[in-house]
Write a structure and sequence with these properties.
The complex is a heterodimer of chains A (966) and B (315). By secondary structure, chain A is mostly helical. In chain A, 74% of the residues lie in helices and 0% in strands. The chains are: A mainly alpha (966), B alpha+beta (315).
Chain lengths: 966, 315
């Protein structure tokens, strides 16, 4: 319904009644009232007030209107209908329009006697039918509306009475909304084709088109295919004609209506159609440019246009203009269709160009997700890490982390993986589905970072907890490969064999074969090793570990002293590694080539390779080994001093790098070579005054002192030093003078043990405690043992109690095999000391006794066990324990003497006096000659008891002893 | 005063006027001189002295209104303008280009006036040549426009610069093309904790220009065998501007289909197969079943592989 039509309709109405009122004597105010109502509608758009006026006219003149005014009065009802229509009271409006049409036909004339001489037609008699239809259309009674529109057409309205384009567009819209898309679309198509002739307003046409778009999205499933086809054909024909200016699209809200329509199309499987239609919606910048062009047409400023420009510019600067929603919908539609690249391109574009979008987290998440699907790993990281930095606590953070983690892992970003995986699995139980990926990535990252000790429990756990994991293949490889790195070859070999059977076509197979060959080599299965390397070479000629496999093959030949073959494959490996820039493997191959030449005493060749190595790989992992390995050749060629000098330089460099493991290796090599060449004492002096040690490098000083101590404490060197003890004492004093933080766990433990051994337990405590306090678990078990022993020997019962806990920690937590016997013994001793007889037996002594190969304290342990049984009233068990002391360990007099005496006492108490007497006789024959001491106090007691029993049994103790002795 | 005086380079102007022959009747324009009412003049030429004009179509007598005295100047568009624009809107780009090029040439004397009919005709001629795929003419028309010292307002500046890149397609200078496109990319930081994306984003521009730049970069990368980068850029072309420019949408979808056909994983990767199928179907739907035969196989929906859950259980 157009405004222009309404205005023209009312204007003609005004004329009709105006004519009537000018001639009416009885109702001089009808015209006035009517004109007032018309003004309220036309000029003021105040429909409520106009309605009041029309009601007033009807109240005052309606009762005899037919008689007084004839058909003309129908215009009053028509005007009332217009007011109600504009007040959206369509039902009431319909009644008024119907009354106008039915009760005031143009055949109705006023009575002859009527004072009015109004004798004009009802100008709206036909037009009111049009409005009746429009009312039904607004009430969405599409079928009835169509019927009434047909009635209107049947009345043959004149051209000036209606707008044919509006009528046709309304009918088309009704058909579309009634579900007859085909007919409605055809009607719209017809209007568009005749738009010039019909003078159809573009906005009115577009309104009908919006209805059509919505109609397309509501067709039944079986019609979708034909609808899509017909819709595209319609668009091919009409899309250019439909196009409105950007500003019109925006100001009439058509852009949002089309956007909504496209959502509907996407929801009903018409994504392609929706995608095409989204292109109709102009960008907001186009709206601004359209307005600016309109502004240019004016020579003076136009405030309304300026205000409009400001509105749309603000939409852009606020960061959430309509194109953002259009692009989001486009991404959704394309992804529904399977076009992930298209969807990704949109999210990627939005992430860069709409930083203020309210949906930015979702945009970044989807950019990350779709980048992962199309395997654009670098961009996954870009958007994923941007998300995490901007939204660390968003509900999608975990999902982004998971996406990112997988991409980072398979892209080799293992350090980053560790942090993200740790965050992801926090608070979740092992075995929970959401821990599958983080646990896999965590263990795998440790493996690839070379942190093998930490990696093993992680990869084992993943294999155990996630048998159905999609990462299982990789996880099983990590488990087996890591065992190879930990030199646990038998188990690794079993797992690798299982892997090869389960995944014969695995993409990891070259790595698996290399590890399997390594495991064979580690178990001295040299033929099998070569065989597996052969498989790797045949099946994976382009493998990244091919060069490493060749080095391993060379190692086998070298071990078998097949030096020519070894030389050949090492050279091949070296060339390949150089070509592929595998520096470590190239250096290793060259190192082995030196070893091969040295083994054959081919000094010139060895020196040549040595020089090549030093030129190509200075400071490499293998450099100290190379110097050590090449030393015979260097000595033969008079270059040993130079090589040792080089080694001294390396030691300084490693000290500066704080690379403790390499430093320890280099120092050990250096000490051996220098010692062999110059003697132990010269070595110690050199270590005392090692050249070029940086002033503040206490770590290096510490390791030089430790190396010195190792030389001094070596039994082979005992006789090579005049004041060995003093030298050792000075070396330890040098160590103790260094800051504790710079000393490794090994050095701290060594100092603690030295102090403990020197009878200074309280001084030893802080050194052990320092090791125990560090996060690095190396030697924590040994330090704990040191602390436990110190506290066990204390007179403080509180410290004894602490010792019990520490011994239990060693036994139950560290489980270090070499420490367990000592820990069990320590535990037994403390419990015994505290009179905890049963606990001493159950937790320590019985276990110690049952492990026949444990230590030198068996006499003491059996004696303590006897004492415990005795205290617990278990005479037989006590007797048995004492027998296990005095029979096998008679010479350990401090235990055997008391065991003899206590056994005899038990016999006496149980009435076996003869047996007790014989036992004591035997004891005194063996020990009676010993002088009194703390250890032999029981012998004196045994003499007294022996005399007592002799008296009771009527025997002569002295004679019996003499006779037995003879 | 909407004239941009700086755009008038006096030295160049003299050269142009000595070369260019005005072959059409002078254009009528309404000029508002300061403190005076608007009046109609026939415009003969524009140079650093001002607007050379006359009250009569025959050019006599001639007056020169200094540019600094002009508040507003509105040209009446020349004959043939509406026809040229109709051809452009009817997507008859070759014909439209020729029509605009003729207008640009006929009124070359006023080309240095900002957004004059001649200057605008140059812009539309180049754009029409671009849309028609005649990239050599894009370059040549650009050169002609520069020779005429065409002056266009800020709103055309970016697009005129991008037209320069289109010329490189005509000469198949792929590396040079990439260099020109690189100027429109956002500088990427490689020092931060966040690595840059694989394909650099473009500077903030209207979507139709982003779409053009993406197409240019994709085309260069396709020819330089950087397929992965090209594929993402072709997808950018038909998406970031919501497929508004049909010709570019069509070309980019075909480009993506070509790359998918030679994608190393097309024979076994479901995601890639699904992508190819989606594009082929969308193309046919959008462009009246005109998918080239070489991509027919993509119309068959790919078979989704069994998931790990469906696979044989572990022993």
């Amino acid at each position: 319904m157009t405004k222009r039509l309404l205005v023209s309709v009312i204007a003609s109405c005004s004329f009709a009644l105006g004519q009537a009122t000018t001639v009416s004597a009885q109702a001089p105010d009808v015209g006035e009232l009517y004109n007032k109502a018309v003004q309220l509608v036309e000029r003021d758009k105040n429909y409520a007030a106009a309605l009041k006026e029309t009601n007033d006219i009807i109240d005052r003149f309606g009762q005899h209107a037919k008689e007084d005014f004839g058909a003309t009065f129908g215009t009053i009802y028509y005007l009332k209908g217009i007011c109600l229509f504009n007040l959206k009271q369509y039902g009431d409006a319909f009644v008024e329009f119907e009354r106008c049409h039915k009760e005031f036909p143009n055949t109705l004339r006023p009575d002859r006697n009527a004072s009015t001489r109004a004798n004009v037609n009802n100008a709206h008699w036909r037009r009111s039918v049009f409005y009746m239809a429009a009312c039904r259309q607004r009430e969405e009674s599409w079928g009835e509306a169509i019927k009434i529109y047909d009635q209107f057409k049947a009345l043959n309205p004149e051209r000036g009475e209606y707008d044919p384009a509006t009528l046709e567009l309304n009918v088309a819209t009704c058909y579309i909304n009634a579900g007859n898309i085909k007919h409605g679309q055809a009607l719209l198509d017809s209007v568009i084709k005749r738009r010039g002739e019909l003078r159809a307003k573009p906005a009115a046409v577009f309104t009908a088109f919006v209805a059509l778009v919505n109609g397309w999205s509501e067709v039944p499933a079986e019609s979708i295919e034909s609808t899509v086809k017909s819709a595209h054909a319609f668009l091919d024909q009409n899309i250019d004609a439909l196009r409105l200016s950007a500003y019109d699209m925006a100001r009439y809200k058509f852009n949002w209506q089309i956007y909504q329509g496209c959502r509907g199309l996407g929801n009903t499987g018409m994504e392609g159609l929706g995608w095409r239609l989204l292109g109709i919606v102009p960008e907001t910048i186009r709206v601004v440019k359209d307005l600016q062009a309109r502004k240019q047409a004016f020579t003076s400023t136009n405030d309304k246009l300026e205000a409009e420009i400001a509105v749309y510019e603000k939409e852009i600067s606020d960061g959430n203009p309509i194109e953002l929603f259009v692009l989001l919908e486009e991404a959704r539609l394309l992804e529904l269709r399977g076009d992930t690249w298209g969807s990704f391109a949109i999210y990627d574009h939005l992430a860069v160009n709409f930083p203020k979008a309210k949906s930015r987290p979702e945009i970044l998440y989807n950019a990350t997700r779709t980048a992962a699907v199309i395997r654009d790993m670098v961009t996954v990281q870009h958007h994923g890490l941007t998300f995490l930095s901007e939204y660390p606590n968003h509900k999608l953070t975990e999902a982004v982390s998971a996406l990112l983690l997988e991409q980072l892992f398979f892209n080799g970003e293992y350090e980053k993986c560790l942090g993200i995986a740790a965050d992801l699995r926090r608070g979740k139980e092992p075995g929970a589905p959401e821990r599958d990926l983080p646990d896999f990535a965590y263990g795998g990252s440790l493996f690839y970072l070379g942190r093998y000790g930490e990696a093993q429990p992680e990869v084992d756990l993943h294999v155990e907890k996630y048998p159905g994991s999609r990462f299982r293949e990789h996880s099983l490889y990590h488990q087996a490969g890591n065992l190879v790195k930990l030199f646990k070859y038998p188990r690794a070999a079993r797992l690798l064999d299982d892997f090869m059977e389960k995944y014969p076509e695995s993409i990891l197979m070259d790595l698996v074969l290399y590890d399997r060959a390594t495991a064979h080599y580690g178990m001295d299965q040299l033929e099998s090793c070569v065989k597996v390397i052969g498989q790797l070479k045949d099946r994976f000629p382009n493998s990244a570990v091919f060069d490493r496999a060749l080095v391993l093959e060379g190692d086998v030949f070298q071990l078998k002293e097949e030096f020519n073959s070894a030389r050949k494959v090492y050279a091949e490996a070296r060339a390949m590694a150089v070509d592929q820039r595998h520096d470590e493997t190239a250096a290793n191959a060259l190192f082995q080539m030196i070893a091969v030449e040295v083994a054959q005493e081919k000094w010139d060749a060895a020196i040549k390779f040595y020089d090549e190595f030093m030129a190509a790989y200075p400071g490499s992992y293998f450099e100290p080994n190379v110097i050590v390995s090449a030393m015979p050749a260097l000595e033969a060629k008079g270059r040993a001093d130079v090589a040792l000098g080089k080694l001294e330089e390396i030691i300084i460099v490693l000290g500066e790098r704080r690379d403790v493991s390499q430093l320890e290796r280099a120092l050990a090599s250096y000490a051996r070579i220098y010692g062999e060449k110059n003697g132990a004492e010269a070595l110690v002096r050199r270590l005392e005054k090692f050249p070029n040690v940086p002033v503040r490098n206490d770590l290096l000083r510490a390791w030089l002192a430790v190396t010195r101590l190792n030389v001094l404490e070596d039994d082979a060197n005992k006789k090579k030093f005049k004041n060995l003890d003093a030298e050792i004492k000075v070396a330890y004093a040098d160590l103790k003078a260094l800051p504790m933080d710079d000393l490794s766990n090994y050095i701290l433990t060594k100092i603690g043990q030295n102090l403990l051994k020197g009878g200074e337990p309280l001084e030893a405590l802080p050194w052990f405690d320092a090791v125990r306090a560090r996060p690095n678990p190396e030697l924590r078990d040994i330090a704990t043992m040191g602390v436990a022993q110190i506290k066990a020997n204390s007179k403080s019962s509180a410290m004894n109690a602490e010792a019990i806990d520490l011994f239990r920690e060693i036994i139950e937590v560290y489980k270090t095999p070499s420490l367990i016997p000592e820990a069990v013994l320590g535990l037994g001793r403390v419990l015994f000391k505290q009179d905890k007889w049963k606990a001493a037996l159950d937790d320590a002594l019985v276990q110690y006794i049952e492990n026949k190969n444990w230590g030198q304290a068996r006499a003491e342990v059996s004696w303590m066990a006897g004492r415990c049984y005795e205290e617990l009233g278990k005479g037989d068990e006590a007797m048995h324990a004492y027998l296990n002391v005095y029979l096998p360990y008679t010479s350990q007099i401090q235990y055997s003497a008391d065991a003899y005496y206590r056994a005899a006492s038990l016999m006496q108490k149980s009435g076996k006096k003869d047996q007790a007497y014989k036992t004591l006789t035997d004891m005194l024959l063996r020990m009676g000659h010993l002088q009194d001491s703390d250890k032999t106090r029981s012998i004196a007691k045994a003499r007294d008891l022996h005399l007592t029993l002799a008296r009771e049994l009527g025997k002569n103790a002295e004679e019996d002893l003499k006779r037995e002795k003879e | 005063m909407r004239l941009i005086l700086s755009l008038l380079a006096a030295a160049a102007m003299i050269g142009i006027f000595s070369q260019s022959a005005q072959s059409a009747d002078p254009l009528l324009a309404q000029i508002k001189v300061k403190k005076r009412a608007s009046d109609n003049y026939y415009i003969l030429a524009v140079d650093s002295k001002g607007v050379h004009c006359s009250k009569n179509a025959n050019g006599n007598p001639k007056t020169v209104i200094p540019l600094s005295q002009i508040d507003n100047l509105q040209f009446r568009m020349p004959l043939g303008w509406e026809d040229a624009m109709a051809l452009q809107q009817a997507r008859q780009y070759e014909k439209a280009a020729a029509a605009f090029a003729a207008i640009a040439k006929d009124y070359a004397a006023i080309a240095p006036f900002v957004d004059s009919p001649s200057a605008l005709a140059s812009y539309w001629a180049i754009d029409a040549y671009r849309r028609s795929g005649n990239y050599k003419e894009v370059n040549q028309e650009r050169v002609r426009a520069m020779a005429r010292n065409v002056s266009l307002s800020e709103r055309y500046k970016d697009e005129m610069e991008i037209f320069r890149a289109w010329g490189h397609i005509g000469s198949q200078a792929w590396k040079e093309l990439l260099l020109v496109v690189n100027d429109w990319e956002l500088p990427l930081s490689t020092s931060g904790k966040i690595p840059p994306p694989a394909t650099p984003p473009f500077k903030p521009l209207p979507a139709n220009l982003v779409s053009q730049l993406a197409f240019l970069r994709a085309t260069a990368n396709e020819h330089l065998k950087n397929d992965a980068l090209a594929l993402v850029d072709y997808a950018r072309v038909y998406t970031v501007d919501a497929g508004r420019e049909e010709g570019l949408t069509r070309l980019s979808m075909l480009g993506a289909l070509r790359l998918l056909k030679r994608h190393p994983e097309i024979s076994f990767q479901y995601t890639v197969q699904k992508q190819a199928h989606a594009l082929a179907v969308l193309f046919n739907e959008r462009f009246q079943n005109s998918l080239p035969k070489e991509f027919d196989s993509f119309l068959t929906p790919p078979v989704m592989p069994e998931t790990s859950a469906d696979a044989a259980p572990e022993k």
